Amino acid sequence: MQLEEALHHYFGYTNFRFGQKQIIANLLSNQSTLAILPTGTGKSLCYQLTGYLKEGLVVIVSPLISLMEDQVSQLQKNGEKRAIACNSLLSREEKNYVLARISSYKFIFFSPEMLVQSETILALQSAEIALFVIDEAHCVSQWGVDFRPEYRRLGDVRRQLKQPTTLALTATATPKVREDMCQVLFETAPQVVAESVNRENIALFVEQTEEKLASLRKLLPQMSGSGLIYCATRKQVEQLYQEIKTDFSVGFYHGGLTSSQRRQLQQQFSENKLSILIATNAFGMGIDKSDIRFVIHYDLPDSLENYVQEIGRAGRDQRDSQAILLYQEGDERIHHFFHQMTREERQGLEVYLQNAGGSEEFLSEIQQKWLAEIKETENKSQVLARINERQVQRSEQLQKMLGYIQTASCRRAYLLNYFAEKLTRKPATCCDLDGARYLKRPDDEKEFELSTRVKQVDWETLLLRLFKEKKTD
Ligand SMILES: [Zn+2]
Q: Which residues hold their Cβ within 5 A of ligand 1, which is an ion?
């Protein structure tokens, strides 16, 4: 069967999106692949289709429970009953049940913590593995509050599973991160399929403001179509939602919602019953909406890596879209605060290590992870040095992010340069520093909204109007 036929047979699509065909062809000929593709470009299709075309089990490592749940429910929606997520939500009995019947599944998702356990590895060694998938593979290289020491061990896990064909997936990677992923996860250099970070149909804007909320209120009525607004914390997401919910068709979305709430919101957003979602950057990857027209950052992202990934959700249909970053002086303070917290946690861990024998329960979550890594590698100084290095790197990333705001020349060129790419051709609508203006909202759309608003006037106004009409009759 041709790959296109298989695509149509299993998913009903007629065309592959960028990179998909190449990736699947690599995997089918047992060439491990590192795929750097933006979110929302159909990365999961790569391992799903490969899974259907190969005998055996597809093992997927995923760092977020919400992400796993979304993927499993998406597979189930497509009629796949042999998919399951193995994470901390399962009881010991449930987990044992799954592991005992591992070969009866086609797609099995693991949290990294669950995967590295010896009973999991033992069960997997008895199964035939068609494909080993590492989602969000950049976690290997990110040392800090959200780092995953278990990701450093995935290379080992691969060896214990006799090096199955592997697909490492990530949305963005600087050359340094790319190097790290290759080094930790693969014995020999993998095939690399990467999409440029340059998204020509997304115009780039930075709006410096004294009063962000007022600016946002002014901005939103000019925007057309669906959009995302990113905030740094769940609290900020909910606060902003309260501020604007009466004036705009908006919902909020973050990791604190239940999976059914998330699904419901995704559906409303996909069906355009909600025009705007306010989200944290942990925004579930389950959203695969191709016609998002604008992405607004209400808070400063901590790095260009995250920024590029987040704005990349706009305009997957290739139509003109915009990315707008609202910046108020001092917005970086929240990140300084996070960095300071991590520094203190690191110092706290050193004190703990010096007074060996204290109780681990007083350590924070991240400190416990670091400690686990130290025990695992039996190399305290190396782990501490790495934590330190990661902290320096985080400060640098924040500086580069601020540089994007302060730059006096093309923002696109600045972005590409950071990812070691060159801007060879400027799109017609490039960035605010190249004279780009916000896309004008079509008048018919405004009129339409006006007419729907009139329909929604409350009954009191309606009665009054009827009353008046009666009188003038
Ligand atoms: Zn430009």
A: 410, 412, 430-431, 434
Q: Which band of pLDDT confidence, cut at 50, 70 and 90, is reported for residue 450?
A: very low
Residue 343, number of CB atoms within 10 A of its CB: 13
| Residue range 454-471: mean pLDDT, rounded | 45
Cα separation of 214 and 238, whole Å?
Answer: 17
Q: Can you point out the beta strands (E) in 72-225?
A: 83-86, 107-110, 129-134, 166-170, 191-194, 202-208
178-190 residue pLDDT tens: 888 899 999 899 9
User: How far out from the chain centre does Cα 40 lie?
Assistant: 9
DSSP SS3 for 35: strand
Q: Calculate how far, in angstroms, residue 408's C-alpha sits from the geometric centre of ligand 1.
A: 10
Distance 309 CA to ligand 1 centre (A): 18
Residue 180, strand partner residues: none
pLDDT tens digit sequence for 24-47? 999 999 999 999 987 667 889 999
Q: How far is the CA of 206 from the centre of ligand 1 (A)?
A: 11
Beta-strand pair 83-86/191-194 = unpaired
Q: Compute the average pLDDT of residues 198-225.
A: 95
Spatial distance between the Cα atoms of 323 and 310, rounded to a whole number of angstroms:
9
User: Which residue from 178, 202, 184 is spatially nearest to 35, judged by alpha carbons?
Assistant: 178
Residues 210-217, mean pLDDT to the nearest whole number: 96
107-110/129-134 β-pairing: unpaired
Angle between helices 118-125 and 92-100 (to 10 degrees): 20
The residue assigned the tokens 């995997």 is 27
Q: How far is the CA of 429 from the centre of ligand 1 (A)?
A: 8
Q: Give the pLDDT of residue 457.
A: 41
Q: How far is the CA of 38 from the centre of ligand 1 (A)?
A: 21
Cα of 232 vs centre of ligand 1, distance in Å, is 26
Alpha carbon 360 to chain centroid, angstroms: 32
Cα(414) to centroid(ligand 1), Å? 9
Cβ atoms of 201 and 315 within 8 Å: the answer is: yes
Say which residue, 379 or 443, is predicted with more confidence: 379
Instruction: Give the span between the Cα atoms of 384 and 352, in whole angstroms.
Output: 13
Specify the CATH number for 3-194; select among 2.40.30.10, 2.60.40.1640, 3.40.50.2300, 3.40.50.300.
3.40.50.300
Q: Cα 332 to chain center, whole Å?
A: 21
Query: 373 pLDDT exceeds 90?
Result: no
Mean pLDDT for 205-233 is 95
* Residue with the larger pLDDT of the pair 463 and 373: 373
Tell how far the Cα of 58 is from the centroid of ligand 1, in angstroms. Answer: 42
